Every structure is written in structure tokens, then in C-alpha cells.
Amino acid sequence: RKEVEQDPGPFNVPEGATVAFNCTYSNSASQSFFWYRQDCRKEPKLLMSVYSSGNEDGRFTAQLNRASQYISLLIRDSKLSDSATYLCVVKVSGGYNKLIFGAGTRLAVHP
Amino acid sequence: NAGVTQTPKFQVLKTGQSMTLQCAQDMNHEYMSWYRQDPGMGLRLIHYSVGAGITDQGEVPNGYNVSRSTTEDFPLRLLSAAPSQTSVYFCASSYRLAGNEQFFGPGTRLTVL
Q1: Is A21 exposed, middle or buried (0-12, 13-18, 19+ CB in 10 A)?
Q2: In Å, what is the CA distance from B62 to each residue of A101, A108, B35, B46, B77?
Q3: How buried is A34 (Cβ within 10 angstroms: 0-12 exposed, 13-18 middle, 19+ buried)?
Q4: Along chain B (113 residues), what's the average pLDDT of each consecutive run of 10 residues?
Q5: B90, A44: Cβ pair inside 8 Å?
């Protein structure tokens, strides 16, 4: 079983739609959680950190459920420019604060 | 600031050849790391460094060496390339620890024939 699991998608949605991605993690020692965005053939970039109380950044909302060991990302009013792969990233406590990356969920927003 | 730079962008090697992937950052970040990204898998940590002169192995270190003689540079050496090392390689840096925002370079696409 992968340490961080994501539905690979693709999620094909029309502009203006609301879409949600889930991510599950298996290591209960996970400390911090992030969503990164990766455009096709580009490098990953931090989208947002995920806090225990949940957090929002414009059209993006991230939630954390420690009991069930999953995090989610909600995108409202999808734009064409949101088309990308979204990587779920978990930091596990340990000798070097290990980061575990999910394989990503691909989102395609169409007109 | 240029951020994190990587060279080359593309490389084709024959099995058994060696080469060095270059990585440099101008943000004065202590923490630097190398990842490889393969289809259907998340980024996997190869080696990392918490400061000049200090390096350690990550999840998939076999077949790779690193050194960190300066804060800015963190080259990755492939000792004897194998087809299993065909991948996209990303260098990343962050302020202090891995848990802080990782800044990635543009990647190197490596094919080993």
C-alpha cells in the first residue's frame, strides 16, 4: 500500500464547476500536509498548506481529517487555468522530516 | 533571483555512462534535495543535504552520489547509468527543513538507453 494515495483521475469538469480531491495517508506520524500543483512538464509548486482547522485561499479550500487520515482539496468556480496535476504531500516526523508525495490527481477544466 | 536552476534540461545516456546533473539555488537555502519522478508514482527522494558539507541518503539512493561543497550547489552524479534510471529529476531547496515550502528547479529529463 502506498503511503500517500490519490485518485489519479483525470477529473474532467466544465468551467465554473466545483471539484474535490481526496488524499489518504497511512503513516500516523504524519505531521504536516500540503497541496502542490504541477503543470504539464513543469516543476511542482506549493499551492497551500493544510491546517488542522482547515483553511481557505480564494477559490481553494483544504481540509484535514486526522482521525480518518485523509486530506481534501476543494476548488470552486473552476477556471481553465486550474488544469494541472495536484499533488498531496505529507511530512512525516523522522530524522530528516521526510516528505512523502502522492502520485497526483489530474484535473482538466474545459470550456 | 533565479531561484533553483538545473542543467541540462534533457539528456540521453547509454547504459554504463556516467554524468552529473547540476543544481544551483540563489536563495541561501540550507536544505536541498534531489527527487526523481516516474509515471504513476510520487516524487521519491534520492539524496538530501541540510547544509554545506552535510549530505544523507533518501528513499532511493542506489546508483547516485551527491556532494555539497557550497550552500548554492548540489550536483547529482550518476555513477553508471542504467535504463531503470530513466526518469525526470527535480532538485529542490527550502529554508531550513523539508517541511517548509519546497522550491523546485525545472527538472532534467533523462533517458538511459
Answers
A1: buried
A2: 20, 36, 13, 8, 11
A3: buried
A4: 94 97 96 94 92 93 97 97 98 82 95 97
A5: yes
Task: Give the contacts of B66 (CB within 8 A, at least 6 positions apart).
Answer: B34, B46, B47, B49, B55, B74, B75, B76, B77
Joined together, the cell numbers standing for residue B9 give: 534540461
Q: Are B99 and A97 a contacting pair at CB < 8 A?
A: yes
C-beta of residue B28 within 8 angstroms of C-beta of residue B42? no
Residue with cell 525526470: B88
User: Are residues A101 and A30 in contact, defined by beta-carbon separation less than 8 angstroms?
Assistant: no
Q: How far is CA A100 from CA A87, B68, B99, B109, in A?
A: 10, 23, 11, 21
Contact between chains at B106 and A42 (C-beta distance less than 8 A)? yes
Contact B22, B6 (CB under 8 A): yes
Classify residue A105 by burial, with Cβ atoms within 10 Å: 0-12, 13-18, 19+: buried
pLDDT at A51: 86
